[in-house]
Design goal:
Shape of chain A: globular
Number of helices of chain A: 5
CATH class of the largest domain in chain A: Mainly Alpha
Largest sheet of chain A: 3 strands, mixed
Oligomer: homodimer
CATH architecture of the largest domain in chain A: Orthogonal Bundle
Order of helices and strands of chain A: HHHHEEEEEH
Low-confidence stretches of chain A: 142-149
Radius of gyration of chain A: 17 Å
Distance between the termini of chain A: 26 Å
Mean pLDDT of chain A: 90
Amino acid sequence: MKSVKSPEELVVAFRAAGLKVTPQRQLLFRLLHGNEMHPTAETLYEVASAEMPGISLRTVYQTLTDLAAMGELQHIQLGGAARFDPNVDDHHHSVCDACGDVRDVYAPNPDHVSVAGLDGFSVRAARIVFSGKCPRCAGAADDLSVSKQ
Amino acid sequence: MKSVKSPEELVVAFRAAGLKVTPQRQLLFRLLHGNEMHPTAETLYEVASAEMPGISLRTVYQTLTDLAAMGELQHIQLGGAARFDPNVDDHHHSVCDACGDVRDVYAPNPDHVSVAGLDGFSVRAARIVFSGKCPRCAGAADDLSVSKQ
DNA sequence: CCCTAATTCGCAATGCTTGCGAATTAACAA
DNA sequence: TTGTTAATTCGCAAGCATTGCGAATTAGGG
């Protein structure tokens, strides 16, 4: 169980990598720590802006890219804007067709089960995406209400 | 094992749905039939253009959208341009980190195995993406050659 | 052969992300 | 503290993938 790095640990990791620790980055480290909402860059930018008006979306993207490159963040592509997950555990995701909500899911690692068609392919990671209806949306039959994040 | 629909079957399905069968669509039906390369709209457009100069990228997108809506095509989001898979079997994919090659992979359906975190989520589909190195790229150590499709 | 709704297709517009460059700033050493 | 320098910030423009729109065309049933 690799746990999510604390803002302090990220500061150390950044400096160790020859990267600078700016106020903008420290803010983002904090906003990401323990964050389970799988935010997009835009969402994170909005939250960050509230606390630090003037921070730029460009900087948010930059920092997210750096974090992902260091393996401290998971870059999730589900169509539309990319989502970022500070939980770098080996885990998977469920995505609600109706409201778009993304949640963490833990399952037995599928690269240990027998698969056909993987001839010689060396697996680095295996990620499952469960699509369907979240409990809240499953109830309301054809509810079209789509809430962001 | 739901098999891939033939161009003729798609013609029937389209008319049944009140959609017209145009030369452009027939061409795309043919290009997609048995196609295992997981092409992007752009790639498909290029191939189609060779046979039917003047066909528009817009039309390719339109037809792919229609096919996907009818469930005759799988819309795959892996970052970058969407890929389309005429194989609508319950299957998964491997993606090479180096060359981007996408291949079909068959694995035991993961929605039958025990998962934690799926509380009340009703699963419509579970798709696994295996990331890593394909046999060809695994050999060449740090080869940066990235071939399209 | 006609009618009409569906389609094609080009262009503009959108949404997401990255490139670029000038001004600023963190971090390290003197 | 001050100086030096490379990293960073940030706004804008550019890029890629995709969709909206509308005029002209066409499939397909009557």
